[in-house]
Design a protein that fits this description.
Elements (H helix, E strand, L loop, with lengths): L9 H11 L3 H23 L10 H8 L7
Length: 71
């Protein structure tokens, strides 16, 4: 963890806390997690059509089969 000081408009903090139902710190953590998620989604979408996934019907059927795995 890292302790920070941030100047954030009261309206943003209050509306965020209403949404999360949490305190200031958890609300900010949730906002940052969502920003990280949105960035990852954006980067995945940028890859659309650039990755060649060769899988035929047999391969897909094999992937769907129930299999036992040693964990």
């Amino acid at each position: 963890m890292r302790k920070i000081t941030a100047f954030i408009p009261v309206e943003l903090i209050e509306s965020g806390q209403r949404i999360t139902g949490e305190g200031v710190s958890e609300t900010i953590r949730e906002a940052l997690r969502q920003m990280r998620h949105a960035d990852a989604c954006r980067r995945w979408l940028e890859l659309r059509g650039t990755i060649d996934l060769e899988a035929d019907g047999t391969t897909l059927a094999e992937l769907r089969e129930d299999k036992e795995y040693d964990l």
